[in-house]
Amino acid sequence: LTLPPLRIALAGLGTVGGGVARLLAGQERLLALRAGRPLQLVAVSARDRRKDRGFPLDSVAWFDDPVALATAPGIDVVVELIGGSEGPARRLVEAALAAGRPVISANKALIAHHGASLGRLAHEGGATLAYEAAVAGGIPIIKMLREGLVGNEVKRIYGILNGTCNYILTTMRESGREFAEVLAEAQKLGYAEADPAFDVDGIDAAHKLAILAALAFGCEVDLGHVHVEGIRHVGAQDIAYAEELGLRVKLIGLAQLIDGALEQRVGPCLVPLEAPIATVEGVFNAVVAEGDFVGTVMAEGRGAGAGPTASAVAADLVDLARGRALPPFALSAAQLRRLPARSLEARRGAYYLRLMVVDRPGVIADVAASLRDEDISMESMIQRGRAPGEVVSVVMTTHDTTEAAMRRALARIAALKAVVAEPRPIRIESF
Ligand code: NDP
Ligand code: HSE
């Protein structure tokens, strides 16, 4: 090894930062060989200096203020693992890039909110901004899109982008346990965001989808036009009914280019049990890209947790050590397009609907009439048991229709006296 060590500053020593520190120590020789030079941790920053991290920190410099790592001498790269789209993480990344110092980050919130301006800053400062760990944990999806699929026009990209939600949906189905209990378990395992609402309300998946869409379609990150729904309204009943119908509930992020307009949406979907993505369970993520020459490619792996995320950070570190660098979004900042957003109302597909209705004569006829009036054809219907005058679940699926027609029909259905809870449809995807 003739090159000097790559001197690394770690900002954030939590789940991911701790994972990176352990990986750098545990894989020291392997990484040095692969990087052609040693990867050396020289500085760290976190909030609490006294906290026992489970690994020694005596030989590295401690910084109370992470932003100081942007310009402190003796550092070649800053690894930002604090989190949050604003605050110290943003200040640190902006200051480092402005100073021409390379940045590696796992912070999808930051990249999704400020990707365009950070890309410009990196360009102006001549600095690398790498974020393999920000999307789908250990899956090398950024590399796959920026490098492996570079010969393709991508038509559609979709996937399971949040490990916490996939863990919750899988565990609820397998164990019949309640949402809150399973979420607490995902938090304990280090999968969830600092505020787990980001996970269960679909925001984290939206951050990742917006980044993937920018890479796949050569456009600026456009988080504001991602339609976002989470999994809070998906009940254990929906999960069970779905299985009966040969379907499985997944939180899916999907982006596609149709007639020059970009559709981006995150929400619970029902996918056929035989679709490859239906078998992606627990904390695993999967990303499916459809390219014009390659066809369909699916990448699967652990989407959260210390080990998988540290593995992705290590890939960026070795690239940097080797001098391999691409613009953050594959094209130079000036070449990235601004694409018009496609309205979700134009979506065409089937729907699942669970209604809570008072069991009395004529209710189903009224619901069916609401669908008929919007030209929506019912595919199947399940009503279990009979409880005259009581509330029962009625589950139905439709044939293909448009989101706009479905929304109009739902407004009529919600207005029926016998319908006691707001009907929440789930889109059925035929992947
Ligand atoms: P944690 O909450 O576990 O860790 C955050 C770290 O940042 C802690 O060490 C904390 O210090 C430190 N920190 C917070 N505020 C400051 C501050 N003002 N100054 C200095 N240090 C500060 O988060 P994670 O490790 O889970 O996540 C880090 C990033 O990685 C986030 O952007 C997240 O979205 C992303 N990510 C997380 C994954 C996961 O599975 N957890 C997977 C992929 C990406 P202290 O320890 O002293 O409190
Ligand atoms: N909270 C995120 C998840 C971490 O559950 O997928 C990985 O980005």
Can you give keywords for this protein?
431 residues; alpha/beta; 6-stranded parallel sheet; 13 helices; binds NADPH dihydro-nicotinamide-adenine-dinucleotide phosphate; binds L-homoserine
**Bound ligands, each once:** NADPH dihydro-nicotinamide-adenine-dinucleotide phosphate, L-homoserine
Gyration radius (Cα, Å) is: 24 Å
Task: Say how many strands there are.
Answer: 17
The topology string of helices and strands comes to EHHEEEHEHEHEHHHHEHEEEEHEHEEEHE
Name the overall outline: elongated
Approximate strand percentage: 15-25%
Largest sheet features: 11 strands, mixed
First-to-last CA distance: 48 Å
Bin the helical content: 25-40%
Low-confidence segments: none
Word description of this protein:
By secondary structure, the chain is an alpha/beta fold. The protein is built from 13 helices and 17 strands. The strands form 2 sheets. Strands 7, 8, 9, 10, 11, 12, 13, 14, 15, 16 and 17 form an 11-stranded mixed β-sheet that branches. It is elongated. The model has no long low-confidence stretch (mean pLDDT 96). Bound molecules: NADPH dihydro-nicotinamide-adenine-dinucleotide phosphate and L-homoserine (HSE). L-homoserine binds next to helix 6.
How would you summarize the topology of this molecule?
Blueprint: E1 6-11, H1 15-26, H2 28-35, E2 39-45, E3 61-63, E4 77-80, H3 87-98, E5 103-105, H4 108-125, E6 129-130, H5 141-148, E7 154-160, H6 163-175, H7 179-188, H8 197-200, H9 203-217, E8 227-228, H10 236-244, E9 247-258, E10 261-272, E11 284-291, E12 295-302, H11 306-322, E13 348-358, H12 363-373, E14 378-383, E15 391-398, E16 401-402, H13 403-414, E17 424-428
Parallel strand pairs: 1-2, 1-4, 2-3, 4-5, 5-6, 8-10, 10-17
Antiparallel strand pairs: 7-9, 7-11, 9-10, 11-12, 13-15, 13-16, 13-17, 14-15
Helix pairs in contact: 1-11, 3-4, 4-9, 6-7, 12-13
Bound molecules: NADPH dihydro-nicotinamide-adenine-dinucleotide phosphate and L-homoserine.
